Amino acid sequence: MYDRPPTSVLLPTTKWTDACAELAAQLEDSDELLIIHDSEDDPVTAQEDHLEGVRFIAAGEPEGCSGKANAIAAGMEAARHDRLVWTDDDFHHPPDWLTTLNIEYEDYGPVSEVPYFVGQDLLSVLLEPLYASAGSLPLYLGNQIWGGAVIFECGDLDEAAFLDELRRTVSDDGLLMEYLQVTTVGRTRIVPIGGTIHEAVERPVRWTQILRWHFPGAIAGTWLISLLVLTGAVLAPLPVAAVLTVLHFAVNEVLGVRRWTAVLAYPALFVFVPLVLYGLVSRTFVWSGRRYRWREKFDVTVGE
Fold first, then answer.
1. Where in the cell is it found (predicted)?
2. Prediction pTM value
3. 290-296 and 284-287: which strand pairing?
4. Does the residue 127 lie in any domain?
5. Which of 3, 79, 91, 94 has a CA-to-CA distance to 132 between 20 and 30 Å?
6. Residue 170 located in a structural domain
């Protein structure tokens, strides 16, 4: 049996979800699960007295950074162990999830999984194929970090410098990509997204601005390629629709996900390109109930 080092699992959430129980059940004697919430009034704290190995950390309201970045920073500062796992509360963690990540760390060093976003509203469903090709596939092929499933040790990065910058920006995993090299292990997690049209519009704005401030070359390339493909889609709709559909079924095969929504790749293009443009020019966006104005990479204003 694999005798893993003690691990601190960081889970930002304000409410108790299935993921909380799944992770609590995977803890070994020396592990800890840090449930990082905003305040003592959050619903998740109702579980505080009932779970062994689980600690509840009140991060407080963010000032000059996102709520997620604030939570991760508070969790890293409170963690008792050098080996850290970041994760999210919105996807299924199978019983061997934590042990598997630890074993893979021994083989590869820092490791990350890949998300596949599945829409819960009409707009998010429509955009699924382009989220797969423009979001998940580059993470998969480029060994890039998804903050929902990443394992590393504090010594793998300059922790003090990272935490200082994390408290002044929006994207936790966008910043981590600048500090840490990982191996993606070819494993995809299904992550439900959306629920309302408003959420579906705000999400690509946030993602576009993350690329704008952390990877300007990537957003410029995405915008240029999208415009070129859109032009082709207008001039030659049938051939382009056929090619896009086949390509997106192939993307799903690479990611190990079979979704009928690949057939929506052609119409999704006509929505995706305007949303990318909107994301580039928008001055603010909403994320988990807070409105952010992201003026520069380390210049963030938090509103209601």
1. Membrane
2. 0.93
3. antiparallel
4. no
5. 94
6. yes
DSSP state of 182: -
3-state helix, strand, coil in the chain (%, to 5): 50, 20, 30
H/E element, 55: strand 54-58
Q: How many domains does the chain divide into? A: 1
As given in the structure block, the two tokens for residue 4 are 């893993």
Question: Residues 126-177: pLDDT tens digits?
Answer: 999 999 999 999 999 999 999 999 999 999 999 999 999 999 999 999 999 9
Residue with tokens 């409410």: 15
H or E element at residue 282: none
Q: Reduced to 3 states, what is the DSSP secondary structure of residue 236?
A: coil
The tokens for 3 are 């005798």
- What 3-state class would DSSP assign to 195? coil
* Rounded-to-integer distance, Cα 142 and Cα 145, Å: 9
- Cα–Cα distance for residue pair 266/217, rounded to 1 Å: 25
Is 63 within 8 Å of 302 (Cβ atoms)?
Answer: yes
Q: How far apart are CA 18 and CA 93, in angstroms?
A: 9
Determine the Cα–Cα distance for residues 10 and 55; give it in Å rounded to an integer. 10
CB atoms within 10 A of CB 187: 17
CA distance 236 to 241: 8
Written as six digits, the tokens of 68 are: 């997620």
- Domain assignment present for residue 282? The answer is no
Domain that holds residue 169: 1-108+145-181
Q: Establish if 260 belongs to a structural domain.
A: no
Report the amino acid identity of residue 189: R
Query: Which pair of structure tokens corresponds to residue 232?
Result: 């082709």
Partners of 189 in the beta sheet? 115
pLDDT tens sequence across 12-62:
999 999 999 999 999 998 999 999 999 888 888 887 666 789 999 999 999
